[in-house]
């Protein structure tokens, strides 16, 4: 059943990604098709996660591939929450969601039977909070990329700037910082729970934990510099993208060491 | 009732002629009342680009003559510039007007409010009420489903829209005007309409700055104090007649250090230019001169024309609905007679059966009433729908006559 639900999820997310490319060229049917792709894909993936949860005794997303599946769901959920005024964000979010879902499937994260030896409560708090934070950082990075694109249009004095209007620079900058304000505490708590468990088990800090701590420092610096030095605009967008690069590194390159 | 439109617009008459037939709100309402006095309906739509009289009356020729005479009374020379449209053509014209498709700048939004005001002030009945409501609906639909009205159509509105692209909501945005001429004032009004605050007016002659500043509740400044206010301003609009740059890149760069990364939009409407083009290269600064704004406006007008094609399709579909509704009026009397006859028969039959029904209790009697009413309704539903469809296809009168003949409607009166 879980396997069966994977395909419609991928199909709808893929359709949404193509739809947003069409929408970027011209508003109309492509944009509406994209929105429905996101909605239906999200419903299919929610059903997929529900089936996984029902079939497993414990937390079903304890493996790196399983957690990637959950991460994609978080990202699409966050996007659905902010989509209405920032529809073009789908151009960045939906291809990423479709690609990561494929990676999750290749790693066996969309089926059932992949169990972790950790306790359910620990996994729910640690994995859940860290993934929710990653989803928030992904949104912040997408908004920052959007900011840089919009700023480039203004700097190049593109004549189409008022025909295809995007959210204002101030709005994109503010929303990106809000996403970080909500995500950093979640990462802090998720990370603290993980480190506490690590110390209790007498284990050593692995590469993924070290990279996550560096990532935490980048996002913390983002907020501190905003508050104290007025960091904003293009520089803030670059810092957010650097933070997101670390999210990608932690999410994709290192999980094999952390979950093994 | 038939619909007649007599009017003139920027397509047919120069401004010297249009201004002589333009009417204020009260005068337009008075004229509509006068035209409707003979038992009809009338609405006068008068804006700076058009004066149009919409009249609904049984005698279409007389209504048209009265409307032409009313406009000729205002200005005898207007008669050759008048257009005369009837029924569906008149409705389609009104729908295009409400959708902004007949405007000087396609898609301008003000006209929808003007159509609404004309409708409210008019003397309307079933026909004009319907056509104006449907026109307003078509106008709203055009704006909701196309991007025809989204892009600005003038340099000053483009400046306001650009400011929104940088700052979002301009509420609380601080504007610094450099120069106190007409162009500065126009740009300021566009920004004010977007809820920005005109905070400072700087000018070489302080008296002129004070005059303009007083109109906006702003602070007047001599040009020498420009640099200190650059720190506080979000948007700078410059349009002086100075021969050289009023503001150079070095001055703006100094101000930027105190702005803590806040963006600064600079609009240079002057020729020769007031603002050093190198300002645009500074981080967080966006400088647009008159040519940049003209290019944006030209491009958005091209976009508006593309959207106009989609808007025309919406307007045509809405006017077709009106045509069908108007045509269905031809069969309404026949439908009403048919239903009245059926109801009369039903009641007569129930009265005849009074002896039997008398033995029933209240709830049983009500059930019988409901069942018989339902039978009548079900029996007449399809003929009613078919007659309306036939009316829409222009066969309504034939069908209505056939129904009258078959059911003997109106024979008692004869």
Write a short abstract of this structure.
The complex is a heterodimer of chains A (260) and B (414). By secondary structure, chain A is mainly alpha-helical.
Detail the topology: elements first, then pairings.
The complex is a heterodimer of chains A (260) and B (414).
Chain A: H1 2-25, H2 29-55, H3 64-82, H4 90-106, H5 120-155, H6 169-201, H7 207-229, H8 233-253, H9 255-259
Helix pairs in contact in A: 1-2, 1-4, 2-3, 3-4, 3-5, 5-6, 5-8, 6-7, 6-8, 7-8
Chain B: E1 2-9, H1 15-21, H2 25-36, E2 41-46, E3 50-57, H3 60-74, E4 83-86, H4 87-98, H5 110-121, H6 126-145, H7 155-167, E5 174-178, H8 182-193, E6 197-203, H9 206-216, E7 219-222, H10 226-230, E8 235-238, H11 249-257, E9 264-268, E10 285-289, H12 290-328, H13 332-352, H14 354-357, H15 362-392, H16 396-407
Parallel strand pairs in B: 5-6, 5-8, 6-7, 8-9, 9-10
Antiparallel strand pairs in B: 1-3, 1-4, 2-3
Helix pairs in contact in B: 4-6, 4-12, 5-6, 6-12, 7-8, 12-15, 13-15, 13-16, 15-16
Question: Can you describe this structure?
Answer:
- The complex is a heterodimer of chains A (260) and B (414).
- Helix content of chain A is 79%, strand content 0%.
- Chain A has 9 helices and no strands.
- In chain A, helix 3 packs antiparallel against helix 4 (90-106), helix 5 runs antiparallel to helix 6 and helix 6 (169-201) runs antiparallel to helix 7 (207-229).
- With 414 residues, chain B is α/β, with parallel strands linked by helices.
- Chain B folds into 3 domains: 2-145, Beta Polymerase, domain 2; 156-294, Rossmann fold (3-Layer(aba) Sandwich); 330-407, no CATH class.
- In chain B, the strands form 2 sheets. Chain B has a 6-stranded parallel β-sheet.
- In chain B, helix 9 links the parallel strand 6 (197-203) and strand 7 (219-222).
- The radius of gyration of chain B is 31 Å and the shape is elongated.
- The chains are: A mainly alpha (260), B alpha/beta (414).
